[in-house]
Amino acid sequence: MFHIFQCQPLRLITHTSLSSMCLKLMLSRPVAFAQIWKSWFSSHSLLGKKNIILMGPPGAGKTTTGRIVGQKLDCPVIDIDDDVLETTWNMSVSEKLQGLGYEEFLEEEGKALLKFSASGSVISLSGSNPMHAAGMQHIKKTGIVVYLDVPTTVIMSRLKSKAMDRIVGLSPGVSLKDILRFRKQFYKRWFDIRVLCGGDVEAEVVAEKVIDAVKRYQDSELETFISTRSSRSGRSTEEDSQKLYFSDIITQGLALDGGLFVPERGLPKFTAEEWQGLIEVTYIERAQVILERCIHPTDIPASKLAEIVETAYGENFSCSKVAPVRHLAGNQFLLELFHGPTASFKDFALQLVPHLFAYCIPRSCNYLILVATSGDTGSAVLDGFSRLHDTDKQRIAVVNFFPEDGVSPIQKSQMIGCQTENAWSVGVKSDFDFCQTAIKKIFTNSDFTGFLTVEYGTALAAANSINWARLLPQIVYHASAYLDLVHQGIISFGSPVDICIPTGNFGNMLAAFYAKMMGIPIRKCICASNENNVLTDFIRTGVYDLRGRKLISSFSPAVDILKSSNLERYLHLIANEDGQLVTQLFNQLENQGHFQLQKDLLGKLQQDLVAGWCSDEDCLAAIHSVYSTTGYILDTHTAVAKVVADRLQDRTCPIIISSTAHYSKFAPAIMRALRIAEINQNPLSQLHLLSSYSALPPIHWGLLETLKKTGNGDHHVCAADMNVLMSHIEALAQNHFM
């Protein structure tokens, strides 16, 4: 059996001479001694008895990177090809491959790996090692598997000038590109952490990235969360006394002090080379890479995260590109976010979050998820949680509160039709702001939440965009849209774009701003409002004023919102995480109905955001105009964004308009815009009529199926009273969990 044991630190120096050397260095150059000791201790405590196992395709630079990492960490370096296989076989890898053939070679290579043992070393695997399951299971137990993820085009370029007689599977009928594509599935199965390696990145830089990635993997303490209302200098809230991680805050929703959770050290940054490495890959691959950097592997391992992402976006979206970018006219592009099962952008988060939630929560606990919706969130939440495994449905249930008379008929039919054994809809005789405020108050009502825990063994959680996990998938599609424009040759990487989003609760806009912080070259984020334009006024003046304002029902109900919850996260960010200031502002909003930003903060805000609004008449006119000139039908929310984009863009760069819902959901308004005289009140009939227009995009398949099975389904309706809402919650918890 082949053994390499952990090296002994400073092994050529005796204890006596070491002590003497240390003493002399400490006395003569104390600063230098401290730096050397810190460096040595950091390197060796990083590795310990574990191995760093480098994995990747041929040409990824595993051998060179491994040598540099080994030098930096002062530990043995083992190349499986050169130091194990060729030593064991007493012949070159290429000779062995030619003598045995593809399948028998993999088996012999796997057997050699099973006999191999090492600790405290940097190990460079062969490109084909991951294809032998037993061998990889054996080696993975000894350390941390680091995947050097190099773009296929870069690998192809590197291998052009090299002999390829050691590449398993290469034959006259099989191209190198096919082999690289085939092997990706095996690399994804085994890695613990991924290091993105662009085309022009030096091996020295890759080695540093490997070490940084291993440090991150071993230290989850680096990725904790705080409340937007907590202060770094004077922590006072209960959760500040303990560390909170992703797996904690996904279940809590709101912080105990009423604030929203944000990552204490901010979001990860991607280099330009790393982003460019994602230009050629699929949406699912982009999502996995970005989410891996935002969710610590201690919370959700990379292999499990990959499984969840594939489940969420693999088959549940009608478009293979998941979130395609379509040219509309001039320099305007549409980001189509309606290809999910419930036809809105909410599906991107809510096909993913239920699986993240189910993985993170304790198996012994029941959770009741509360949701407030202005239209699209409700059906998306219900559909997402209904797709969980049956065992998870028994311990996770959802209650969806929506304004009974404040959503479109089709949206209501969707929410009724998406009810299942663990998901229910409750209409509230009020508006969205009441529903959202009521849920926030219920979460901070310790008597009620404690009662549910004691009586029914049930904890409450949130699935609205106040939940941090809801924002992460939205960051992905904003980044992906930019990369698609690069891939299509519309722009080169680094060229700026503007983004215009119909904005209500500010979550979608915040996600775009986060994408910008992570390295996507977004110039301006344009907030588009309807006549409920409190955000527009705020961005222009710095005054958030709800006094005397009443919610106006519009043709774009998803942005019929006056209190924008996620604005709190943005203000916390630009206020340098001053939790005391954020607390002051939002307490004043709650108690007095208004607040005003300081001049310096308003200046920061206006560097990032611009805003406009449009009337219902302008919205319908835009739908008619676009259809007349292009044959494309915008939904009412996208039309709001189109109108505002036309008014505010300066046409010096492309603008990406978020198309947040499919027009089928708002058929009466669309028919009015298209000047269809006779409007049948039956939602299903409305969709059939619209489908006869053969417009782009076609009628939404999932929506049509939901309406076919809805019929006249029942749902609960209650008064706008906190006690009534809590009674509904208690009754549903009792029925489902007892």
From TrEMBL:
Domain Threonine synthase N-terminal: 235-313
Modified residues (N6-(pyridoxal phosphate)lysine): 346
Cofactor requirement: pyridoxal 5'-phosphate
Taxonomic superkingdom: Eukaryota
Keyword terms of this UniProt record: Amino-acid biosynthesis, Pyridoxal phosphate
Coiled-coil annotated spans: none
Swiss-Prot/TrEMBL GO biological process terms: amino acid biosynthetic process
Keyword Amino-acid biosynthesis: yes
Gene3D superfamilies: 3.40.50.1100, P-loop containing nucleotide triphosphate hydrolases, Threonine synthase, N-terminal domain
Any one GO cellular component localisation term in the record: cytoplasm
GO molecular function, one term: pyridoxal phosphate binding
InterPro entries: P-loop_NTPase, Ser/Thr_deHydtase_PyrdxlP-BS, Shikimate/glucono_kinase, Shikimate_kinase/TSH1, Thr_synth_N, Thr_synth_N_sf, Thr_synthase-like, TrpB-like_PALP_sf
Pathway in which this enzyme or protein is active: Amino-acid biosynthesis
HAMAP family: Shikimate_kinase
Family note: Belongs to the threonine synthase family.
UniProt-listed NCBIfam families: thrC
Descriptive protein name: THNS1 protein
Taxonomic source organism: Brachypodius melanocephalos (black-headed bulbul)
